[in-house]
Amino acid sequence: MTQLAGRTAFVTGGANGLGLGLARALLAEGCKVAIADVREDSIEAALKLLENQHVMGVPLDVASRESFAQAADRVEAELGPVSLLFNNAGVNLFQTIDDSSYDDWDWLLGVNLHGVINGVTTFVPRMKERGLGGHVCNTASMAAFLCNGAPGIYNTTKFAVRGLSESLRYSLAAHGIGVSMLCPGLVKSQIYASDAIRPEALKAGAKEVNTEFVSNLEKLHQAGMEPEVIAARTLEAIQENRFYIFSHPEFQDELAEVFDEVLADFREYPEDPGLADRLQIEAGRRASYRKAREAANAL
Predict the structure, then answer these.
(1) Cβ distance 50 to 39 under 8 Å?
(2) What are the residue numbers of the active site?
């Protein structure tokens, strides 16, 4: 996609951090932009910053399918058909999987994974029906490739967004709709304060907020990359139809190291009785996968 001007973009988590950076960059490209966010006070503040431009704010809990559909109808009635979708909203819980409750899982899965699913399921059928092309950009993270003991649930959601995004890229290529996955590292954002927007209904089993830990996280995130820098790199990648958007080049060596460790775990085994038949089956799958990648890359 080389032409962004005149299109309508929908950005979740759009009133703060990276989402707000994306909104600004899209407006500068001549897009009409809807910023959707669960924080209504942040929406009001963002709209003041972006006044006198083609922008509107929409309160939205991305975990709610019904709210997503209502927001989509409202935005398209005011700004026109959405053909640029940025599933960017995310929250984090900085703890290990074995130290987490069911409500912890439901909260992070609801925002980080189901929020993406809801965005795709709401808007992609409309894009396909209109036949005007478009682009979907899902914000994952370097946590979609690199993980430690914590934040375990966050890693799980971002690995899932990675698989969702790649599969979606191949299925939408035939409709002229591109798909990208943004994988930032440390961002100057407010994700360290995710507990402040945790729903009351999902607080059972939640640990008491460690204010000192949160304060230290805030200091770390203040050293993060500026949202405007990431946004510029994201739009450049979308216009070049790149799938992986690695905004933070400092991760390249580490990712190569991890991939080398993955490949090193393969072993040479004696040929088993079913190998010849499997190779024949896999040859067809490989050819299909290669064809899908080529078609998606050719948009």
Answers:
(1) no
(2) 154
* Domains identified in the chain, total number: 1
Q: What percent of the chain has pLDDT over 70?
A: 99
Beta-strand pair 8-12/55-59:
unpaired
Is residue 3 a part of any domain in this protein?
no
Asked if the structure places residue 77 within a domain, the reply is: yes
Contact present, 104 and 206 (Cβ < 8 Å): yes
Q: Is residue 176 included in any domain, yes or no? A: yes
Nearest CA among 186, 250, 198 for reference residue 222? 186
CATH number for the domain harbouring residue 64? 3.40.50.720
Average pLDDT for residues 1-17, to the nearest whole number? 93
pLDDT computed for residue 1 by the predictor: 67
C-alpha 82/C-alpha 10 separation (Å) is 7
Question: Domain residues for 71?
Answer: 8-297
Per-residue burial over 163-193, b = 16 or more CB atoms within 10 Å of its CB, e = otherwise: ebbbebbbebbebebbbbbbbbbebbbbbbb
Q: What angle, 0 to 180 degrees and rounded to 10, lies between the N-to-C axes of helices 152-172 and 114-130?
A: 10
Residue 269 pLDDT > 80: yes
Give the tens place of pLDDT for each residue, 184-223: 999 998 787 898 999 999 998 888 877 777 777 788 888 8
Cα–Cα distance measured from residue 168 to residue 161, given in angstroms and rounded to the nearest whole number: 10
* Residue 152 is assigned to a structural domain of this protein: yes
